[in-house]
Specification:
TIM Barrel, 309 residues, two-stranded antiparallel ribbon, 43% helix, alpha/beta, 19% strand, 12 strands, globular
């Protein structure tokens, strides 16, 4: 099982805070550093304020050398698909081909209101999201020298040179995620390299993975082509006192974390992650909420990761 570090900087973090976590992620052997794409805190004052996801990743692309970098998830409401395809392809080049694009329909109404971003009703957001996937992957997949056209309800492109290209063969891997039962599995089967289930039980992960596998089969795609992944909050301590200190630092109850996250002692975290592996997850994003506690990453890298193979 691959372990990736996943951060929520809208809760309060500078670029330098994120750089420190990314560097420790690389030094300790984790597979990747991912961040959310949000402009408003979900609690607390959020000081010093939000950082832009793709500006952050562009910086980290030049200040790391091994780890993969990406979003979980970029909101389709934030950016037009053509410029987003250019941005991601450029960051891919800046990183030497280490970027991944997690993209979703957008859901947090308050951040849209706070920063003047249009927030359509759910049906329209999902329609726009589907068109964005088609546009972005279409631009990347158009051979050099050819033109890309798209005539959608919400986006229209005419005679695009479809440049620049990502440096990764086949384009930047796209992540689709969520708990939708119909459209989400279909979009994952059509466009995604990876399907992610955020913050759900192992049983729910198994059910949602099965839905995507079924959608792949219906679309004539080998379900084994996709990576299946989970996201879980991380809170591990060597003993009860350290665990409770880490839980208090992120404002969470220890018992709740044990039920819903990769939490407890290192051995308990290994057991939890093993249940997700049995459910079909080959990769887990560990949500690190206290970005100042780099020793937390050291502990997980030293005492959890080696037991997961």
């Amino acid at each position: 099982m691959q372990l990736r570090i996943f951060t929520e900087p809208q809760m309060g973090a500078t670029y330098d805070d994120l750089l420190a976590v990314a560097r420790r992620t690389e030094e300790t052997g984790f597979d990747a550093f991912f961040r959310s794409d949000h402009y408003l805190t979900m609690g607390g004052d959020g000081l010093p304020g939000p950082t832009d996801a793709w500006v952050t990743l562009a910086g980290l692309a030049r200040e790391t050398s091994r780890i993969r970098l990406g979003t979980l998830m970029t909101a389709a409401t934030f950016r037009l698909p053509g410029p987003l395809a250019i941005t991601v392809a450029q960051v891919d080049q800046m990183s030497g081909g280490r970027v991944e694009l997690g993209i979703g329909s957008g859901w947090f109404a308050e951040e849209h209101a706070a920063y003047g971003i249009p927030f359509p009703e759910l049906g329209e957001r999902f329609d726009r999201y589907e068109e964005q996937l088609a546009v972005i992957t279409g631009l990347w997949g158009t051979p050099v020298g050819e033109r890309f056209d798209f005539a959608g309800t919400h986006y229209q492109l005419a005679g695009s040179p479809a440049l620049p290209k990502p440096v990764q063969p086949g384009g930047v891997p796209v992540l689709v995620g969520g708990s939708g039962r119909k459209r989400t599995p279909r979009l994952a089967a059509r466009y995604a390299a990876e399907f992610n289930v955020p913050f759900a039980s192992a049983e729910d992960n198994a059910r949602l993975f099965a839905g995507v596998r079924e959608a792949c089969a219906d679309a004539g795609r080998d379900p084994a082509d996709l990576v299946y992944s989970s996201a879980l909050v991380l809170c591990v301590g060597r003993d009860d006192a350290e665990l409770r200190r880490r839980a208090a630092a992120i404002g969470r109850d220890v018992d709740e974390l044990r039920r819903n996250g990769a939490a407890g002692t290192p051995a308990q975290a290994v057991d939890t992650l093993g249940r997700y592996a049995e459910a079909g997850a080959g990769r887990v994003y560990l949500q690190v909420l206290d970005l100042t506690d780099l020793d937390h990453l050291d502990l997980v890298a030293g005492e959890v990761a080696p037991q997961l193979g």
